[in-house]
Specification:
The complex is a heterodimer.
Chain A lengths: L3 E4 L2 E4 L5 E7 L6 E7 L5 E8 L5 E2 L8 E7 L2 E6 L8 E8 L9 E3 L3 E5 L1
Parallel strand pairs in A: 2-11
Antiparallel strand pairs in A: 1-3, 3-8, 4-5, 4-9, 5-6, 7-8, 9-10, 9-11
Chain B lengths: L1 E4 L4 E5 L4 E3 L2 E4 L3 E8 L5 E7 L5 E3 L5 E5 L4 E6 L8 E9 L7 E2 L3 E6 L1
The chains are: A mainly beta, B mainly beta.
């Protein structure tokens, strides 16, 4: 099967600092990855689409300068929460679609990263 | 536009009883429908999907779902629930023409009591 890995799984930081979360597709290449945010006991809200080799596409209401996305290679996308504040505390999940092979068309999710801003 | 509604925040069943989690959808094109399960502080695990073909889809862990076009529904079912099925379940939809961008329902918390 396909595996998507996120790191770190948990991070605690002070208000005003920046935090980087990595999302890697371990056994397939992903030109597109998706970043979601999930509040406690709520659904996943799509934040942005990460595109390899070009700028990310952000959903309406998501601050581009606050949530920096870089799709550095075909297997790595990073989300950087800049100048984090307590209201940025959340569970962030990435996903990547497999576009070839027997699992083509399926979306695979990372394990999520819980960010706590003090 | 695409959206999903999960009308029940919570479903409680006794172990061994049938489990149903409801989902209705709205999409402009052909619906691609999915069910995922999430355990605390974990990512989403794929259960099953409907793309085309038979309306009854069988998935992981004994789950199945029935696509009903006239009712725009895709309810998740399991004939005999286990305590280990207790988790948060998400229904999701995307238009078959878009690039994998899913819309999720609000989620349904399933509690199976022993």
């Amino acid at each position: 099967g396909a595996v998507v890995s996120q790191h770190p799984s948990r991070v605690i930081c002070k208000s005003g600092t920046s935090v980087k979360i990595e999302c890697r597709s371990l056994d397939f290449q992903a030109t597109t990855m998706f970043w979601y945010r999930q509040f406690p006991k709520q659904s996943l809200m799509l934040m942005a689409t990460s595109n390899e080799g070009s700028k990310a596409t952000y959903e309406q209401g998501v601050e581009k300068d606050k949530f920096l996305i870089n799709h550095a290679s075909l297997t790595l996308s990073t989300l950087t929460v800049t100048s984090a504040h307590p209201e940025d505390s959340s569970f962030y999940i990435c996903s990547a679609p497999r576009t070839s092979g027997s699992l083509a068309g399926e979306l695979f999710f990372g394990e999520g990263s819980r960010l706590t801003v003090l | 536009a695409q959206s999903v509604a999960q009308p029940e925040d919570q479903v409680n069943v006794a172990e061994g009883n049938p489990l149903t989690v409801k989902c209705t959808y709205s999409v402009s094109g052909n619906p691609y429908l999915f069910w995922y399960v999430q355990y605390p502080n974990r990512g989403l695990q794929f259960l099953l999907k409907y793309i085309t073909g038979d309306n009854l889809v069988k998935g992981s862990y004994g789950f199945e779902a029935e696509f009903n076009k006239s009712q725009t529904s895709f309810h998740l079912k399991k004939p005999s629930a286990l305590v280990s099925d207790s988790a948060l379940y998400f229904c999701a939809v995307r238009d078959g023409t878009n690039d994998y961008k899913l819309s999720f329902g609000a989620g349904t918390t399933v509690t199976v009591r022993a």
